[in-house]
TrEMBL record:
<protein>
    <submittedName>
        <fullName>Probable transcriptional regulator</fullName>
    </submittedName>
</protein>
<dbReference type="InterPro" id="IPR035965">
    <property type="entry name" value="PAS-like_dom_sf"/>
</dbReference>
<dbReference type="InterPro" id="IPR058031">
    <property type="entry name" value="AAA_lid_NorR"/>
</dbReference>
<dbReference type="InterPro" id="IPR027417">
    <property type="entry name" value="P-loop_NTPase"/>
</dbReference>
<dbReference type="Pfam" id="PF00989">
    <property type="entry name" value="PAS"/>
</dbReference>
<keyword id="KW-0067">ATP-binding</keyword>
<dbReference type="InterPro" id="IPR002078">
    <property type="entry name" value="Sigma_54_int"/>
</dbReference>
<dbReference type="InterPro" id="IPR025662">
    <property type="entry name" value="Sigma_54_int_dom_ATP-bd_1"/>
</dbReference>
<dbReference type="GO" id="GO:0043565">
    <property type="term" value="F:sequence-specific DNA binding"/>
</dbReference>
<dbReference type="GO" id="GO:0005524">
    <property type="term" value="F:ATP binding"/>
</dbReference>
<dbReference type="InterPro" id="IPR009057">
    <property type="entry name" value="Homeodomain-like_sf"/>
</dbReference>
<dbReference type="Pfam" id="PF02954">
    <property type="entry name" value="HTH_8"/>
</dbReference>
<dbReference type="InterPro" id="IPR000014">
    <property type="entry name" value="PAS"/>
</dbReference>
<dbReference type="Pfam" id="PF00158">
    <property type="entry name" value="Sigma54_activat"/>
</dbReference>
<keyword id="KW-0804">Transcription</keyword>
<dbReference type="GO" id="GO:0006355">
    <property type="term" value="P:regulation of DNA-templated transcription"/>
</dbReference>
<dbReference type="InterPro" id="IPR003593">
    <property type="entry name" value="AAA+_ATPase"/>
</dbReference>
Length: 449
């Protein structure tokens, strides 16, 4: 063991020295000898070998000196001097040099500061990506309905109560969910959104609750966390909850009651601490009557209910909405609007807006691409034909041949809109009307939003 200690001491990277209590050198390792440019100094007084040393002083006082600055050969070094005690008496002093030049310490401190800045940035970025994107001040409108809803939602946000948000497609249900999380005590935790209708039924259980290794063919090794586990200490938004398959509704009810999840293929449960916000554009009570949704799950979700008014019921918010949307679109398209003709407001107020604020944004974005100057005019506003077959507003008047792709996309978008209108905003029924799969409908619907 003594041979090992001797080898370790001799080959240590840091300069090291051991003296007796009177300051005579007992050991001096190679690193220190090379720095001092000395060889055989064992037995010599340390004051004759190392300038400005305090090893002998520490040997007499028996008090350690930590991170002390010592100048040797014109360089400021950082050194430790530690008395070695035996039965309360000093028998030796150990000296080590941490930095042979204070500039090394300065460089290290700068590197640590940079790493701390990077860590802070990545924490913020992670929080931004997993956290809420929208806040209450980004939900614009001065109508009484919206103001009362925002005030109530801000109050609800302070609690941990489960929230059910209802409203037509495009009214901003997800915005309210984001804002509630951002205003809650869980705002530093993750915000996880799951579209229950967009994920195929066969995959939804493993997406929500996760799975263990070998749970099924193609399962990832070591398993995978589900959305509920990812949302731990945060909030999960179950969007389009009305389209969740009945077998999964029973498992979700158990999660809400027991506050624990069971992965697919697992033999034990995992406790979770998650706030649940659910949203839907379906008539939930009608779905319960038709046997499509469990009544016990509905009442478990419907602790606090928020109903988002459609745009047609708050047309007084149009000026602020249009101003806000044009500002957003200007940043993404590079097209600025200096003025809006009065006739534009007449057209916008005369339309029923079945697609609500989302449709308004699409109409404005299309209008920006039709503008030839910086004034938004009536002829730039393209709105679909109403159910009665009459234009709900002036369409773009042009005889120029347009690209086939553009014509097909507009036709597809109009078909989706009409299906949604006929289905009363229920995406599942709209998909059935168009005779396409649920996932195909959601893919196309998201494409045009």
């Amino acid at each position: 063991m003594s041979k090992l200690l001797e080898v370790v001491f001799e080959n240590a990277h840091e300069p090291m020295i051991v003296t007796d209590k009177d300051g005579k050198i007992l050991l001096l390792n190679r690193s220190y000898r090379e720095f001092l440019n000395v060889q055989d100094v064992i037995g010599q007084p340390v004051t004759d070998v190392i300038e400005n040393t305090r090893m002998h002083i520490v040997g007499q006082a028996g008090v350690a000196e930590i991170a002390d600055i010592q100048q040797i050969k014109g360089q400021n070094m950082i050194a430790h001097r530690i008395p070695i005690m035996d039965e309360g008496k000093v028998i030796a002093v150990l000296g080590t040099v941490l930095f042979q030049d204070v500039q090394e310490l300065t460089a290290l401190a700068a590197m640590v500061a940079q790493l701390k800045d990077e860590l802070t940035y990545y924490k913020k970025e992670l929080r931004r990506r997993m956290g809420a994107t929208y806040h209450f001040d980004q939900i614009v409108g001065y109508s009484q309905k919206l103001q009362e809803l925002k005030k109530f939602s801000q109050k609800v946000a302070k609690s941990d109560s489960t929230v059910l948000i209802t409203g037509e497609s495009g009214t901003g249900k997800e915005l309210f969910a984001h804002a509630i999380h951002a205003e809650s005590k869980r705002k530093m935790g993750p915000f996880i959104r799951v579209n229950c209708a967009a994920i195929p039924d066969s995959l939804l259980e493993s997406e929500l609750f996760g799975y263990e290794e070998g749970a099924f063919t193609g399962a990832v090794r070591r398993g995978k966390k589900g959305k509920f586990e990812l949302a731990n200490h945060g909030t999960i938004l179950l969007d389009e909850i009305g389209d969740m398959p009945l077998p999964l509704q029973a498992k979700l009810l158990r999660v809400l009651q027991e506050k624990e999840v069971e992965r697919v293929g697992a033999v034990r449960t995992t406790p979770i601490d998650v706030r649940v916000i659910a949203s839907t554009n379906s008539d939930m009570l009608q779905s319960i009557k038709e046997g499509k949704f469990r009544a016990d799950l509905y009442y478990r979700l419907n602790v606090v209910s928020l109903s988002i008014p459609p745009l047609r019921e708050r047309l007084e918010d149009l000026p602020e909405l249009v101003s806000n949307l044009l500002k957003q679109l200007g940043e993404s398209t590079g097209v600025a609007v200096r003025a809006i003709d009065e006739e534009v407001w007449h057209v916008l107020r005369g339309y029923s807006w079945p697609g609500n604020v989302r449709e308004l944004k699409n109409v404005l974005e299309r209008a920006l691409h039709l503008m030839e100057d910086d004034i938004l005019k009536k002829e730039h506003i393209w709105l679909p034909v109403s159910d009665e077959g009459t234009p709900s507003s002036l369409s773009v008047s042009t005889h120029a041949v347009r690209p086939l792709k553009q014509i097909l996309e507009e036709a597809e978008q109009e078909a989706l809109r009409q299906a949604m209108q006929q289905a009363g905003g229920n995406k599942l029924n709209a998909a059935k009307l168009l005779q396409i799969s649920k996932s195909s409908f959601y893919e196309k619907w998201e494409k045009y939003q």
